[in-house]
Protein: Serine/threonine-protein phosphatase 2A 56 kDa regulatory subunit delta isoform
Amino acid sequence: MPIKKKDKDKRPGHPHLPASSYTNMLDKIQFTGPHIRKDRNRGSSRFNISRNREIQKLPPLKDASVANREELFVQKIRQCCVIFDFNLDPLSDLKYKEVKRAAITELVEFMTSQRGVITELIYPEAVAMFSHNAFRALPPSTNPSGAEFDPEEDEPTLESSWPHLQLIYEFFLRFLESQDFQPSIAKKHIDPKFVIQLLSLFDSEDPRERDMLKTTLHRIYGKFLGLRAHIRKQISNIFYRFIYETEKHNGVAELLEILGSIINGFALPLKDEHKQFLQRVLIPLHKVRSLSCYHPQLAYCVVQFLEKDPSLTESVVMGLLKYWPKVHSPKEVMFLNELEEILDVMEPVEFVKVQQSLFRQIARCISSPHFQVAERALYYWSNDYVMSLVSDNCQTLFPIILPPLFRHSKAHWNKTIHGLIYNAIKTFMDMNQKMFEICNAKYEEQLKQQEAHIAEREEAWSQVEKLAIQSPHYHKLARPEVITAPMVFPRIEPMETVPERLNLPPREPQEVGPSIPEGVGPGVPEGAEPERQMEVGTSESGASSSPVGEGGGAEGTTVTTEGGGEGVIHNVEEGEQEMGNPKASLLIRRKSALPQDFETATALHQYQTKDKILPAADET
Structure:
């Protein structure tokens, strides 16, 4: 049977699906399986891999003659400029990688053991070999958000090419430290551009490379006097970007460690350039979130500045107080550690300038609910030099220190803090008993003043309550046992006006209970002539309102006070007039407790009470 033309476009097994639409259907199919994420190769630096990587093993340097030794040394250096792939295919060219590794190792050993190896021809070759191997594009950061690196929990990202790279750094260090090295010749090749490229490598995530870079840069700083200002300027630029832009850099601790040794060698008096570096770089470094990664090195640099020039103490202490953490307790503990190191090198004359601001902050730390912060602040009193400074200025410092100690001697939640505070109070008592008693008396006087102030407030509220009781509307509108604050209700507004004010549909009346007969209510003695009730519909001020539901007062009314507060009054049945019956009392609810948003008000307006269906607890 011949196939019709229409059937040619249909797939077997799917008589209604044309073959042309089958591929389109595949494009629309969603993959519903689990997404498998391939971990990218961490530490994948981008090297310019050499095309010709087939290198031959050269004869040993120790077997070469003196005339051919220099040429053979240069040939081995050039062999080490060949770059291999350690990332995509680490098992490739294993034979030639071993030849390069052996050549670098031989160069390092020969340079260390022999004299007269470094000639003028070696300088450009050695610098070029280091540049080819070390200067590269670093891999993307594994932590681009800039969170802190925890050495105890986080594993560092290691460089895959480190087996060869480590030997390159060792060769260059031996080259710089060699007795034959002449900076006057090397400065043609180790220039400011070389320094900038070297500093860019400090952002490497491999701590081993950063450690080698730290030593290399320190050697260059010591050998090349003309590059020192340039190195300090470039380090400042790295810190500026770290503080004000990225807050992400892996080599801040190593750079600060280099600066610590540089600051230690500054000549006196300090230049304005160095003082500006302290104020504009080192002090703002305290505000970065990842302070814990480099704080020991930073504190060392600050202390070195103060040892060089004690007149910088005031600006340093005020800068620390400016960046003092408010909610990060571990960072606050680090600030306290650094502050104690500063106090250890602080001159008594400089201490007087900052003592009040400084010890107010210490007093706030003593009052901290975080026990580690309070504990670290209380350990200050174990420092003999700090206690000697306090003893010399007890007239000023005792009124600042003692009140928080008195306040938290029993109020702090941590019992360890209680013991430390007790020891501190005992120490201050032995230090100057007369001043201690004066401060104690002032503190007790302040407590009495606070108690008197509280008593005055309570007395004022009781007077207000007495005046409220004298109001003619007090006994009509509220139960005496419920009143906690005076409320005067001069105007009565029917509840029916609430839906109109909120633009809600009118609510059907619900029976809550009959109204109270005239003259009967809480606070009205038997036989007494009842006061004339205000007409529902007209308030004392003459404002008109709608009447309450007829025939039994089904609806409650809204009560508006002179101060603007409102309440809802529900009527009760005639037969229940006794004071002891809860239903006989008027139910009052402050209008301020009612919802103000439209959706909530609508939901409550449409809500039907379940009292008619579910019996009350006392009726079962």
